[in-house]
């Protein structure tokens, strides 16, 4: 397949059809819906409006499309999922995160479905699949980020319950979630961690406003647990599987963040081309300057390289291969190079690109975050070197 900033994947008929439908939905329905309701990427999450997006996206076959057919999904491969995630961001939709179910939906639950008991599936996870409930994932603490073993949130068995105490931060989707998939240390058992399904309206549990990241998105919440009782049947998996569940999810998320970054870079490229065609400098379009042409060429090359790496890794994962090293490589390369694309886009836009509220400025802030989110570039380099040395 030859390179295109907006590929059609004609050699993948099902994927091609989904792309056509997705682009139509974004341009004809979702983006007009956002304009009608004054929704921007920095607007607080509104559960009622999000539920409308979940319902419509599910009707169109996008919400939870990654799930197997027995769960009303389309059984998308990782390759297909990466393509669709790139497309969502490339169109600049503020609510793009809710179309496939990233924000509190099936993608947020991720591979956790395979650990769930029939009771947990029926009460918690299947309603998420149907867009009736929302969840968040809670692992990080103030002093336990990259080193999650420093977590101080504890769980202790007491009769037919576990009592949880502690605080989790940076729980994306917590402001609109019904429950959390939360990892805690088993009190008095050393390095033993377990995962629990915690109803966020339980006595002893409260959700506080989280820090607003530099992207301006009001999507984070902190979860405070004060002797919060969780039924023993809400233990997810087995005692001691908490980090396997949590870190396994993070490894896959490192790969799945990448197409979102590529889509953001694509959007920055599109805006830069449009601006440089219409901006007149010394009697000619900015695009006529070789310096601008070179910047655009470098930006397109970075996008092509990142996409090629990510889709090759996704295809490898679809064959059942271990991609732990490649996922780190993808996240490192994509985060660094897509941010460079955004930086060049700001440079091309000049003072306009420095203005708060300008779309390019917002993309710049958003992509800068991902050199840290789900692992810093330095953490990725350490992991790659350790695996290959």
Describe the structure.
The chain is of the alpha+beta class. It has three domains: about 15-105, Butyryl-Coa Dehydrogenase, subunit A, domain 1 (Orthogonal Bundle); about 135-240, Butyryl-CoA Dehydrogenase, subunit A, domain 2, CATH 2.40.110.10; about 245-389, Up-down Bundle (Butyryl-CoA Dehydrogenase, subunit A, domain 3), CATH 1.20.140. The protein contains ten helices and ten strands. The strands form two sheets. Strands 1, 2, 3, 4, 5, 6, 7 and 8 form an eight-stranded mixed beta sheet that branches. Strands 9-10 form a two-stranded antiparallel ribbon. Helix 6 runs antiparallel to helix 7.
Summed up, what is this model?
By secondary structure, the chain is α+β, with helices and mostly antiparallel strands. It is 47% helix and 15% strand.
Query: Can you identify the CATH superfamily of the largest domain?
Result: Butyryl-CoA Dehydrogenase, subunit A, domain 3
The number of helical runs is 10
In the predicted model, the low-confidence regions spanning at least 5 consecutive residues are none
> Helical content, roughly?
40-55%
Query: Quick one: CATH class of the largest domain?
Result: Mainly Alpha
Largest sheet: 8 strands, mixed
* Principal-axis shape: globular
Helix-and-strand structural type: alpha+beta
- Report the CATH architecture of the largest domain: Up-down Bundle
- Could you tell me how far the N terminus lies from the C terminus, measured between alpha carbons in angstroms? 34 Å
Overall radius of gyration: 21 Å
CATH topology of the largest domain: Butyryl-CoA Dehydrogenase, subunit A, domain 3
